[in-house]
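Each record in this resource describes a single protein on a pair of labelled lines. An example record follows, reproduced without changes.
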Amino acid sequence: MRIVPGKMRMIHNNDSWASRDMQLVVRVINLLADRGMTLQQKLDMSLKMILEGIGALNGSIMIIDQTEAKLKVWAATNKDIICKKQPVSEESISGCVFLRNEPIFIRDINKHPDFAPKARPDNYRTSSLICVPLATTGEDKPFGVINVSDRNDSTWFSSQDFALLMDYAAWISPLLENTFLVEDLAREKERYKRLSYELEIKQKELMISTSERSELIQMVVHDFKSPLSAVISNLDLLSYMGLSQEQQPVVKTAVDGSKKLLEMINEFLDVARLDHWQETGELKDISLMGVVKEELEEVFPVARKKKIFLEVAEVEDVVVHAHENLLQHLVKNLLSNAVKYTPDNGAVRIYWTVKKARRLTDRCTRLVTLCVEDSGPGVPEEMKKSIFDRFTRVKRDRHIQGSGVGLFICNRIATIMGGKIWVEDVLSGGSRFCVTMFAPEDGCA
């Protein structure tokens, strides 16, 4: 017989021995490949076959538990130690074999230089034992060990027994490791399946909760509009009926405050509608020029009153992939803001550019950047990012009031449509608000 170091492989001179060993290995391999048995059953029966092949009475299979860095007993003739864990340490025989990835064959443990002081002869029928690592070819680290002790004829193990166990370990290690990996994957799959189911339930509960909250907000805020509209109408009526000089500023303040409150209510309703639009609306191909012209008509009366010049740059129309209501609201908010903060006799300019989309995650082949420029006081550098947060207001003009909701809505809309929004300075003075969206050429995902 010849042992090849590091290969865990033995070549027998005796054909009958080789034949018997190969038959045992084939039986163990077939057993481990059996999908009709549990992992525990496979390991118990595999250990039993190996012990019979070597002629040993006792043994165990220990596998490393990576989370705790301990060797766990998966199969053993002593059922009381199954599932117990042992710290990986060179003070123990199995720990030493695992750490060094080298087998240990002890003919007489009482004479062993390292383990004799720790030997417990009462645990063994004989003082001879073998421990070999379980490791796949080419791997520096094992994933477990096999221990055998107590030869069935009460004699010491021989070098042939040691070589046999080395052979068995070499043959079954890859399949044994694969068996554990398959079991781990099955457990992980089941765990993710449960998590997925739980998340699905939570998502449905959240959607119901969000929908109910949104409906409640819309209902409550909408109910505020009717009495508030009545207040504004009656205040206007008082103005037409004739007021004394002392009464006029009081009624004007009440009218301005009521109109501002009505504007805020409409903005909060828009926020509440965002989730509904996102869930129910579909992205489709829409003419950007058509939406811009429509919204320009809406802000034109205010712009004319302030003598603001509204300019649409000479650019070609482009079809964008967007949600119609959201796109209209986005353009409306940007134009309204620009007109609001532009002083009398100023100018508001709107234009867009088109270029190739570069990222693999972009939903369409072309990227459109829509820009709205105003000639207002601009946005301070330190507020350029936070200006898009909910309820954040930048006092660009102390005479202009706002809720800080409009740009938050623009940011949400840009995100829903897969784009982004930012603000930058205009060299001649003022601000430029830019938002990206996508345009189909070869199609959109």
Remarks:
- Residues 1-13 have pLDDT under 50 and may be disordered.
- The CA atoms of residues 43 and 260 lie 76 Å apart.
- The radius of gyration is 40 Å.
